[in-house]
Amino acid sequence: MMRHLALAIAVAFGGALAAPAMAQQSAAQQPAAQQTPEQVVQGIARQLDAEVGGRKADLQKNREKLVGVINQVFLPHFDVDYAAILVLGQHAREASPAQRAEFAKAFYNSITHRYAEGLLNYTNGAVRVLPSTGDLNDKRTVVRTQVATGDGKTVSVDFAFRKTASGEWKAYDVVIEGISYITNYRNQVDAEIRKVGLDQLIKNLQTQGDQALKAMEQQPGGKANGG
């Protein structure tokens, strides 16, 4: 599927929930608050080259490790809490802080587990960061990239960044060929909350994440029980 890899990268950017990123060379070695959004994305691309490009056979056999790569590479650069509020939309005002936190964890675990396998299609150099145009806004900006899909085609993937209170640039939305990751899931979440309520949706997402990981492990080449 042409956009499967691009979608996996987009989901991974918003789906990781634990583990610090490993140190990278050049810009990635700078303190996070000193990195520009372009440097953040370039550092992620280098990590993908190292963590996925040369380990496909290993990751194919152990899907928990594959999810772990997402945790390691993407989480430190994604504003999970802010993105969750945007996905909840009007329902964020009705939810308690605990519900928002539970939703963020369940939602991103669910989609990470469902789409993580797309990263197995990643090849070194698949992500190309396009030159920025104009001056960097001091609060929000967009980093434009092109992702090679492996069939000779490319997909436009844009990352929306905001500067956090700590001074770090973190992504909160991913736009694939003009389709916003936040807007797409906000519509789905809104429909489900109206149907079953937020608490039940959280439970459903938790179940979906567990089932998706088990399904990956049971596929040919996978290892049951994450072994």
Structural notes for this entry:
- The protein is an alpha+beta fold and 227 residues long.
- It is 51% helix and 14% strand.
- It contains 9 helices and 5 strands, in the order αααααααβββββαα.
- A 5-stranded antiparallel β-sheet has the order 1-2-3-4-5.
- The two termini are 28 Å apart.
CATH topology: Nuclear Transport Factor 2, Chain: A
The helical percent reads 40-55%
The number of helical runs is 9
Structural class: alpha+beta
Q: Can you tell me the number of structural domains?
A: 1
Residue runs with pLDDT of under 50 for 5 or more positions: 14-30, 222-227
| Extended strand count | 5
What's the pLDDT, averaged over the residues? Answer: 77
Overall, the morphology is globular
Cα gyration radius (Å) = 17 Å
Biggest pleated sheet: 5 strands, antiparallel
Question: Top keywords for this entry?
Answer:
five-stranded antiparallel beta sheet; 227 residues; alpha+beta; disordered C terminus
What is the secondary structure topology, with strand pairs?
Blueprint: H1 4-15, H2 37-53, H3 56-61, H4 63-74, H5 80-88, H6 91-94, H7 97-115, E1 127-129, E2 140-148, E3 154-163, E4 169-176, E5 179-180, H8 181-196, H9 198-218
Antiparallel strand pairs: 1-2, 2-3, 3-4, 4-5
Helix pairs in contact: 1-4, 1-7, 2-4, 5-7, 5-8, 7-9, 8-9
Give a nutshell description of this structure.
The protein has helices spanning 4-15, 37-53, 56-61, 63-74, 80-88, 91-94, 97-115, 181-196, 198-218; strands at residues 127-129, 140-148, 154-163, 169-176, 179-180.
